[in-house]
Amino acid sequence: MVELLKVHGSQNKFFILDQTALQNKLPQPELVALAKHITEPEQGLLDGADGLLVIDESDHDGVLGSMQVINTDGSIASMCGNGLRTVSRYLSDKFNQDAFKVETMDSDLAVHREADLANDVPTFSVEISPVTFAKETLPFDHLGTDNLINKAVPEFAPGLKFTAIAVPNPHLISFVDEETMHSKLLGQLGKMLNEPNEYFPDGVNVSFAQILDRNTLFVRTYERGVGFTNACGTGMSATSLAFCLNHPEMADFNQTISVYNPGGMVKTRVHDNDSNFTIDLIGNATFTHKVEIPEEDLHANVLDHAQISETGEQPAYLRFVEGLKRQRV
C-alpha cells in the first residue's frame, strides 16, 4: 500500500504523492491521468482538489526534494506557493529538517518552518522567486507595452489599472473597490484570458485585490488551469509586490503584510534588492487526510480501493479562520 496525503494551504487543496515511496515511479502520462482523476469533484477522492503535488528526488545541493504541480486539467504549473508550503512540511517531517530548499520547475527555493499562525496550525515560510515583469516571460502581447505596471487596459475593464508579474507563474493584478471585488468581473476576465485570446496566449492567473488597511489586503484569484480557488499562493505573493510598488503610501517593503483570502489568511514580506525582488509567503500547511491505496491501482488510475482516514488537523485550522472573521468584524 502507498500513502497519499490530502493537504491544503489556505484551503487551496491538493493531494501529495511521494514518488520516492513507490517501487515503480509513475511515468508522466500516468501522473497526469491520476491528477485529472483524483482531483475531480465527483469521480475523484474527498470531493476532489485543485491539483496533484508530486514529490521526487533532487540532486541539487541543499535540496531535500523536488516538486511538480499538476493542475486539475492536466496542465503543469511552474510553481504553487500554497502547495510548496505543504510539500515543505512533508519533507521537513520526513528528513527532520526545519530549513532547506525545494527544487521547482524554475528554481530551487528556500523554505523554513515558522512559528504557528495559531494553536496546532503548522506554518511554513517559502521563497517566491524569480520575479520578472518582461512581457516575454509572462508572456503577453497586443497591449502596446513591454511591461504592464499599474496601467489602464480598457480592453480588460474600463476604469481599472493592471500590473503583470511573473513569479514565475504569470499573474495579472488589479486593485479594486469592494463592489468590483464581489461583482462577476473577475470570473469573466479570468475566463476570457484563459480561453484562446490575443493578449495572454498561454493564459494567466487573474487577481483582484482590495486594500483593507496599511499592509493589509484581501485577494481573490482566478487560477489558470483551475478557475476560482480559495487561495493562490503565488497570486497573493505577486499582489503583495504590486501593493508595495503601486501603493507605497499603504505598503512597506521588508514588513509583514497580512493577506486575507476566501480560505483564510497568509503573511508575506516583499524584499527589494536593487530591483531584484523576492517574496516570503508564510502560511499554514495542513494535512487533512491520509489515503492508502495499492501501488498497482495508482498505475491503473483506479481509486476504488482507497482507504481514507482523517488526521484531525482541520478543526484547528477552522478555529483559526473563525478567529480571523471575528478580527475583521
TrEMBL record:
Protein's UniProt name: Diaminopimelate epimerase
Keywords: Amino-acid biosynthesis, Cytoplasm, Isomerase, Lysine biosynthesis
Pfam families assigned to the protein according to its UniProt record, in alphabetical order: DAP_epimerase (PF01678)
Subunit structure: Homodimer.
Organism of origin: Lentilactobacillus parabuchneri
Site (Could be important to modulate the pK values of the two catalytic cysteine residues): H171, E223
Recorded GO MF terms: diaminopimelate epimerase activity
Described function: Catalyzes the stereoinversion of LL-2,6-diaminopimelate (L,L-DAP) to meso-diaminopimelate (meso-DAP), a precursor of L-lysine and an essential component of the bacterial peptidoglycan.
Active site residues per record: C80, C232
Keyword Amino-acid biosynthesis in annotation: yes
Cellular component terms per the entry's GO annotation: cytosol
